[in-house]
Design a protein that fits this description.
By secondary structure, this protein is α/β, with parallel strands linked by helices. The protein has ten helices and 24 strands.
Protein backbone atom coordinates (compact mmCIF):
# COMPACT_ATOMS: atom_id res chain seq x y z
CA UNK A 1 0.00 0.00 0.00
CA UNK A 2 0.98 3.65 -0.33
CA UNK A 3 1.31 6.54 2.08
CA UNK A 4 1.13 9.98 0.47
CA UNK A 5 3.32 12.47 2.33
CA UNK A 6 6.64 12.16 4.14
CA UNK A 7 5.85 14.36 7.12
CA UNK A 8 5.30 13.15 10.70
CA UNK A 9 1.86 11.70 9.91
CA UNK A 10 3.03 9.75 6.88
CA UNK A 11 6.17 8.44 8.57
CA UNK A 12 4.26 7.36 11.67
CA UNK A 13 1.67 5.55 9.56
CA UNK A 14 4.37 3.81 7.49
CA UNK A 15 6.13 2.53 10.62
CA UNK A 16 2.92 1.38 12.29
CA UNK A 17 1.88 -0.47 9.13
CA UNK A 18 5.22 -2.19 8.75
CA UNK A 19 5.17 -3.17 12.41
CA UNK A 20 2.00 -5.13 11.59
CA UNK A 21 3.51 -6.78 8.55
CA UNK A 22 2.02 -4.48 5.93
CA UNK A 23 4.41 -3.14 3.31
CA UNK A 24 3.97 0.63 3.06
CA UNK A 25 5.73 2.84 0.52
CA UNK A 26 5.88 6.55 1.35
CA UNK A 27 5.57 8.92 -1.61
CA UNK A 28 7.07 12.35 -0.87
CA UNK A 29 6.95 15.14 -3.46
CA UNK A 30 10.05 16.96 -2.16
CA UNK A 31 13.57 15.57 -2.01
CA UNK A 32 13.57 14.97 1.76
CA UNK A 33 11.21 14.00 4.56
CA UNK A 34 9.70 16.69 6.78
CA UNK A 35 9.47 19.24 3.96
CA UNK A 36 6.83 21.43 5.59
CA UNK A 37 8.81 21.60 8.84
CA UNK A 38 11.91 22.72 6.95
CA UNK A 39 9.95 25.68 5.58
CA UNK A 40 8.75 27.00 8.94
CA UNK A 41 10.25 30.14 10.51
CA UNK A 42 13.46 29.77 12.48
CA UNK A 43 12.18 30.38 16.01
CA UNK A 44 9.33 27.88 15.85
CA UNK A 45 9.10 25.30 18.61
CA UNK A 46 6.52 22.63 19.26
CA UNK A 47 3.81 23.88 21.60
CA UNK A 48 3.47 20.35 22.88
CA UNK A 49 5.91 18.63 25.20
CA UNK A 50 8.75 16.48 23.89
CA UNK A 51 7.52 13.42 25.76
CA UNK A 52 4.03 13.63 24.29
CA UNK A 53 5.21 14.50 20.77
CA UNK A 54 7.18 11.36 19.94
CA UNK A 55 5.98 9.17 17.09
CA UNK A 56 5.51 5.40 17.56
CA UNK A 57 8.67 3.40 18.06
CA UNK A 58 11.19 6.17 18.77
CA UNK A 59 11.40 8.63 21.65
CA UNK A 60 12.62 12.17 21.15
CA UNK A 61 16.05 12.75 22.76
CA UNK A 62 16.02 14.47 26.15
CA UNK A 63 18.66 16.84 24.79
CA UNK A 64 15.94 18.48 22.67
CA UNK A 65 14.48 20.06 25.80
CA UNK A 66 10.83 20.30 26.77
CA UNK A 67 9.74 22.47 23.81
CA UNK A 68 11.39 21.03 20.73
CA UNK A 69 12.86 23.48 18.20
CA UNK A 70 12.08 23.31 14.48
CA UNK A 71 15.54 22.09 13.50
CA UNK A 72 15.38 19.33 16.10
CA UNK A 73 11.97 18.24 14.78
CA UNK A 74 13.51 17.93 11.32
CA UNK A 75 16.45 15.94 12.72
CA UNK A 76 14.03 13.68 14.56
CA UNK A 77 12.00 12.98 11.41
CA UNK A 78 15.17 12.15 9.48
CA UNK A 79 16.31 9.84 12.26
CA UNK A 80 12.86 8.28 12.47
CA UNK A 81 12.88 7.31 8.80
CA UNK A 82 16.43 5.95 9.09
CA UNK A 83 15.90 4.12 12.38
CA UNK A 84 12.84 2.27 11.12
CA UNK A 85 14.31 1.75 7.63
CA UNK A 86 11.14 3.11 6.05
CA UNK A 87 10.61 2.68 2.33
CA UNK A 88 10.46 6.26 1.02
CA UNK A 89 10.41 7.44 -2.58
CA UNK A 90 11.14 11.16 -2.91
CA UNK A 91 10.43 13.47 -5.82
CA UNK A 92 7.08 11.83 -6.51
CA UNK A 93 3.92 13.93 -6.25
CA UNK A 94 0.54 12.23 -6.41
CA UNK A 95 -1.89 14.30 -8.45
CA UNK A 96 -4.97 12.08 -8.31
CA UNK A 97 -6.28 9.00 -6.54
CA UNK A 98 -8.87 6.85 -8.30
CA UNK A 99 -10.46 3.44 -7.75
CA UNK A 100 -8.47 0.73 -9.54
CA UNK A 101 -9.96 -0.82 -12.67
CA UNK A 102 -10.87 -4.06 -10.90
CA UNK A 103 -12.42 -2.20 -7.97
CA UNK A 104 -10.27 -3.94 -5.36
CA UNK A 105 -7.90 -1.08 -4.56
CA UNK A 106 -6.61 2.29 -5.68
CA UNK A 107 -4.80 3.80 -8.65
CA UNK A 108 -2.44 6.71 -7.95
CA UNK A 109 -1.51 9.03 -10.80
CA UNK A 110 1.82 10.63 -10.02
CA UNK A 111 4.82 12.55 -11.31
CA UNK A 112 6.21 11.53 -14.69
CA UNK A 113 3.07 9.72 -15.78
CA UNK A 114 3.43 7.07 -13.08
CA UNK A 115 0.42 4.90 -12.36
CA UNK A 116 0.72 3.08 -9.06
CA UNK A 117 -1.75 0.59 -7.65
CA UNK A 118 -2.27 -0.40 -4.04
CA UNK A 119 -4.86 -2.15 -1.93
CA UNK A 120 -5.09 0.83 0.43
CA UNK A 121 -3.87 4.44 0.60
CA UNK A 122 -3.11 6.75 3.52
CA UNK A 123 -3.31 10.44 2.62
CA UNK A 124 -0.99 12.35 4.96
CA UNK A 125 -0.19 15.57 3.11
CA UNK A 126 -1.18 17.66 6.13
CA UNK A 127 -2.99 20.90 6.93
CA UNK A 128 -0.12 23.18 5.89
CA UNK A 129 -0.04 22.18 2.25
CA UNK A 130 -0.74 25.34 0.22
CA UNK A 131 -0.40 28.93 1.53
CA UNK A 132 -3.71 30.76 1.58
CA UNK A 133 -3.98 34.49 0.90
CA UNK A 134 -7.45 36.09 0.96
CA UNK A 135 -8.66 37.66 -2.26
CA UNK A 136 -8.37 41.20 -0.94
CA UNK A 137 -9.54 43.96 -3.32
CA UNK A 138 -6.53 45.74 -4.84
CA UNK A 139 -4.08 43.06 -3.71
CA UNK A 140 -2.80 42.37 -7.24
CA UNK A 141 -1.95 46.03 -7.81
CA UNK A 142 -0.16 46.49 -4.46
CA UNK A 143 3.52 47.19 -5.07
CA UNK A 144 4.75 47.17 -1.47
CA UNK A 145 6.62 44.21 0.04
CA UNK A 146 4.13 41.44 0.64
CA UNK A 147 4.73 37.84 1.67
CA UNK A 148 2.87 34.92 3.15
CA UNK A 149 4.03 33.74 6.57
CA UNK A 150 5.25 30.56 4.91
CA UNK A 151 8.01 32.63 3.29
CA UNK A 152 9.06 34.31 6.56
CA UNK A 153 12.21 32.93 8.16
CA UNK A 154 13.57 35.41 10.72
CA UNK A 155 13.41 39.12 11.62
CA UNK A 156 16.81 40.13 10.21
CA UNK A 157 15.47 41.61 6.93
CA UNK A 158 12.95 43.72 8.88
CA UNK A 159 15.23 45.37 11.44
CA UNK A 160 14.34 49.06 11.61
CA UNK A 161 11.23 48.57 9.46
CA UNK A 162 7.51 49.10 9.97
CA UNK A 163 5.78 45.73 9.57
CA UNK A 164 2.13 44.77 9.50
CA UNK A 165 1.35 41.15 10.39
CA UNK A 166 -2.11 40.03 9.26
CA UNK A 167 -3.73 37.28 11.31
CA UNK A 168 -3.56 36.39 14.98
CA UNK A 169 -3.26 32.62 14.97
CA UNK A 170 -0.22 31.03 16.57
CA UNK A 171 1.91 31.81 13.52
CA UNK A 172 0.95 35.48 13.34
CA UNK A 173 1.38 35.93 17.08
CA UNK A 174 4.86 34.37 17.08
CA UNK A 175 6.04 36.27 14.02
CA UNK A 176 4.89 39.55 15.59
CA UNK A 177 6.90 38.80 18.74
CA UNK A 178 9.87 37.66 16.66
CA UNK A 179 9.85 40.95 14.74
CA UNK A 180 9.73 43.00 17.94
CA UNK A 181 12.61 41.07 19.48
CA UNK A 182 14.52 41.26 16.19
CA UNK A 183 14.54 45.05 16.02
CA UNK A 184 11.61 46.04 13.79
CA UNK A 185 10.83 49.73 14.37
CA UNK A 186 7.09 49.16 14.51
CA UNK A 187 4.95 46.04 14.54
CA UNK A 188 1.20 46.05 14.05
CA UNK A 189 -1.03 43.01 14.18
CA UNK A 190 -4.27 43.04 12.16
CA UNK A 191 -7.00 41.10 13.95
CA UNK A 192 -10.45 40.22 12.61
CA UNK A 193 -11.62 38.01 15.47
CA UNK A 194 -10.01 38.15 18.90
CA UNK A 195 -8.50 34.75 19.75
CA UNK A 196 -8.50 32.75 22.92
CA UNK A 197 -5.04 33.05 24.45
CA UNK A 198 -3.64 30.42 26.80
CA UNK A 199 -0.35 30.04 28.62
CA UNK A 200 1.84 27.34 27.10
CA UNK A 201 2.68 26.23 30.62
CA UNK A 202 1.55 27.32 34.08
CA UNK A 203 3.61 26.26 37.10
CA UNK A 204 5.00 23.42 35.01
CA UNK A 205 1.57 22.24 33.85
CA UNK A 206 1.56 22.30 30.03
CA UNK A 207 -1.58 23.49 28.26
CA UNK A 208 -1.40 20.25 26.29
CA UNK A 209 -2.18 18.26 29.45
CA UNK A 210 -5.43 20.18 29.85
CA UNK A 211 -6.18 19.65 26.16
CA UNK A 212 -5.82 15.89 26.58
CA UNK A 213 -8.05 15.84 29.66
CA UNK A 214 -10.72 17.85 27.83
CA UNK A 215 -10.48 16.00 24.53
CA UNK A 216 -13.61 13.88 25.04
CA UNK A 217 -15.65 16.21 27.23
CA UNK A 218 -18.75 18.04 25.94
CA UNK A 219 -17.94 21.33 24.22
CA UNK A 220 -20.28 23.37 26.43
CA UNK A 221 -18.68 21.99 29.60
CA UNK A 222 -15.14 22.81 28.45
CA UNK A 223 -16.28 26.29 27.41
CA UNK A 224 -17.64 26.94 30.91
CA UNK A 225 -14.50 25.58 32.59
CA UNK A 226 -12.19 27.63 30.38
CA UNK A 227 -13.68 31.05 31.15
CA UNK A 228 -12.57 31.42 34.80
CA UNK A 229 -9.20 29.81 34.03
CA UNK A 230 -8.59 32.34 31.27
CA UNK A 231 -9.36 35.24 33.60
CA UNK A 232 -6.90 33.91 36.15
CA UNK A 233 -4.05 33.17 33.77
CA UNK A 234 -4.27 35.81 31.03
CA UNK A 235 -4.81 39.55 31.69
CA UNK A 236 -7.62 41.46 30.01
CA UNK A 237 -6.20 43.10 26.88
CA UNK A 238 -9.40 44.86 25.84
CA UNK A 239 -7.81 48.29 26.19
CA UNK A 240 -5.08 47.19 23.78
CA UNK A 241 -7.55 45.88 21.20
CA UNK A 242 -7.72 42.20 22.19
CA UNK A 243 -10.93 41.69 24.18
CA UNK A 244 -11.83 38.30 25.54
CA UNK A 245 -13.77 36.32 22.91
CA UNK A 246 -17.51 36.05 23.34
CA UNK A 247 -17.60 32.47 22.10
CA UNK A 248 -16.29 29.49 24.07
CA UNK A 249 -12.75 28.19 23.69
CA UNK A 250 -13.65 24.61 22.75
CA UNK A 251 -16.52 25.69 20.50
CA UNK A 252 -14.00 27.76 18.56
CA UNK A 253 -11.73 24.71 18.28
CA UNK A 254 -14.60 22.81 16.67
CA UNK A 255 -14.73 25.58 14.04
CA UNK A 256 -11.01 25.20 13.42
CA UNK A 257 -9.73 28.10 15.56
CA UNK A 258 -6.99 26.80 17.83
CA UNK A 259 -6.16 28.93 20.92
CA UNK A 260 -3.03 31.06 20.69
CA UNK A 261 -0.35 29.77 23.02
CA UNK A 262 1.40 32.73 24.56
CA UNK A 263 5.13 32.86 23.84
CA UNK A 264 5.47 36.59 24.42
CA UNK A 265 2.44 38.15 22.71
CA UNK A 266 0.60 39.12 25.91
CA UNK A 267 3.60 41.02 27.28
CA UNK A 268 4.33 42.64 23.91
CA UNK A 269 0.75 43.87 23.54
CA UNK A 270 0.56 45.14 27.13
CA UNK A 271 3.73 47.16 26.62
CA UNK A 272 2.62 48.52 23.27
CA UNK A 273 5.44 46.85 21.39
CA UNK A 274 2.88 45.03 19.26
CA UNK A 275 -0.03 47.30 18.28
CA UNK A 276 -3.35 45.64 17.55
CA UNK A 277 -5.28 47.10 14.61
CA UNK A 278 -8.50 46.10 12.85
CA UNK A 279 -8.76 43.57 10.05
CA UNK A 280 -7.46 44.16 6.55
CA UNK A 281 -10.20 44.92 4.03
CA UNK A 282 -8.10 45.60 0.95
CA UNK A 283 -5.32 47.56 -0.73
CA UNK A 284 -5.64 50.95 -2.40
CA UNK A 285 -3.17 53.55 -3.72
CA UNK A 286 -0.22 51.72 -2.24
CA UNK A 287 -1.78 51.52 1.21
CA UNK A 288 -3.46 48.86 3.33
CA UNK A 289 -7.13 49.61 4.02
CA UNK A 290 -8.43 48.43 7.39
CA UNK A 291 -11.98 47.58 8.41
CA UNK A 292 -12.26 50.70 10.56
CA UNK A 293 -11.25 52.93 7.65
CA UNK A 294 -7.64 53.49 8.66
CA UNK A 295 -5.03 53.34 5.93
CA UNK A 296 -1.53 52.09 6.66
CA UNK A 297 1.68 52.30 4.67
CA UNK A 298 3.99 49.74 6.29
CA UNK A 299 7.34 48.78 4.82
CA UNK A 300 6.22 45.14 4.67
CA UNK A 301 3.04 43.11 5.03
CA UNK A 302 3.26 39.51 6.29
CA UNK A 303 0.07 37.52 5.77
CA UNK A 304 -0.27 34.90 8.50
CA UNK A 305 -3.54 33.83 6.93
CA UNK A 306 -3.15 30.08 7.07
CA UNK A 307 -3.00 27.25 4.60
CA UNK A 308 -5.33 25.13 2.53
CA UNK A 309 -5.32 21.36 2.65
CA UNK A 310 -5.55 21.38 -1.17
CA UNK A 311 -7.11 17.92 -1.38
CA UNK A 312 -9.70 18.79 -4.04
CA UNK A 313 -7.63 17.79 -7.07
CA UNK A 314 -6.33 14.62 -5.43
CA UNK A 315 -9.49 13.15 -3.90
CA UNK A 316 -12.24 15.74 -4.32
CA UNK A 317 -13.91 13.76 -7.10
CA UNK A 318 -14.41 10.82 -4.74
CA UNK A 319 -16.95 12.57 -2.52
CA UNK A 320 -14.76 12.21 0.58
CA UNK A 321 -14.44 15.91 1.51
CA UNK A 322 -16.84 18.20 3.34
CA UNK A 323 -17.83 21.70 2.25
CA UNK A 324 -14.62 23.17 3.68
CA UNK A 325 -12.33 20.73 1.90
CA UNK A 326 -11.67 18.56 4.95
CA UNK A 327 -11.85 14.76 4.90
CA UNK A 328 -15.19 13.56 6.21
CA UNK A 329 -13.39 10.97 8.36
CA UNK A 330 -9.89 10.48 9.71
CA UNK A 331 -7.83 7.85 11.47
CA UNK A 332 -9.05 4.26 11.32
CA UNK A 333 -12.35 5.16 9.68
CA UNK A 334 -12.69 5.28 5.90
CA UNK A 335 -15.47 6.95 3.88
CA UNK A 336 -18.38 4.60 3.20
CA UNK A 337 -17.93 5.09 -0.53
CA UNK A 338 -14.14 4.75 -0.44
CA UNK A 339 -13.05 1.73 1.61
CA UNK A 340 -9.29 1.49 1.98
CA UNK A 341 -8.76 5.26 1.77
CA UNK A 342 -7.44 6.71 5.04
CA UNK A 343 -6.65 10.26 6.17
CA UNK A 344 -4.38 11.52 8.93
CA UNK A 345 -3.14 14.95 9.97
CA UNK A 346 -6.02 17.07 8.73
CA UNK A 347 -7.39 18.13 12.10
CA UNK A 348 -5.94 20.52 14.68
CA UNK A 349 -6.60 18.86 18.05
CA UNK A 350 -6.01 20.74 21.30
CA UNK A 351 -4.37 17.58 22.63
CA UNK A 352 -1.41 18.00 20.26
CA UNK A 353 -0.93 17.28 16.57
CA UNK A 354 2.04 14.90 16.93
CA UNK A 355 0.30 12.96 19.69
CA UNK A 356 -2.83 12.50 17.58
CA UNK A 357 -0.77 11.54 14.53
CA UNK A 358 0.88 8.82 16.59
CA UNK A 359 -2.48 7.52 17.80
CA UNK A 360 -3.99 7.68 14.31
CA UNK A 361 -1.05 5.75 12.87
CA UNK A 362 -1.62 2.83 15.23
CA UNK A 363 -5.36 2.82 14.56
CA UNK A 364 -4.91 2.93 10.78
CA UNK A 365 -2.34 0.13 10.85
CA UNK A 366 -4.65 -2.05 12.94
CA UNK A 367 -7.56 -1.45 10.55
CA UNK A 368 -5.47 -2.12 7.43
CA UNK A 369 -3.95 -5.31 8.87
CA UNK A 370 -7.38 -6.54 9.92
CA UNK A 371 -8.77 -5.90 6.44
CA UNK A 372 -5.76 -7.55 4.80
CA UNK A 373 -6.19 -10.54 7.07
CA UNK A 374 -9.80 -10.95 5.97
CA UNK A 375 -8.85 -10.82 2.30
CA UNK A 376 -5.78 -13.04 2.66
CA UNK A 377 -6.24 -15.32 5.67
CA UNK A 378 -2.89 -17.03 5.15
CA UNK A 379 -0.86 -13.82 5.03
CA UNK A 380 -1.22 -10.21 6.04
CA UNK A 381 0.67 -8.54 3.22
CA UNK A 382 3.34 -9.22 0.71
Amino acid sequence: MYVIGGGPGGLAAAYALRARGVRAVVLEKSDRVGASWRRHYDRLRLHTTRRLSALPGLAMPRSFGRWVARDDVVRYLEKYAEHHELEIVTGVEVSRVEPSADGTGWLLRATGGRELTGSAVVVATGCNHTPHVPDWPGRDAYTGEFLHAGEYRNPAPYAGKDVLVVGVGNTGAEIAVDLVEGGASRVRLAVRTAPHIVRRSTAGWAAQYTGILCRRLPYALVDRMARPLAKLSVPDLSAQGLPRPGTGLYSRVREGAIPVQDVGLVDAVRKGRVEVVSAVEGFEDGKVVLADGDRLAPDAVIAATGYRRALEDVVGHLGVLDGRGRPVVHGARTPKNAPGLYFTGFTNPISGMFRELALDAQKIAKAVARDAGRRHPSRIAR
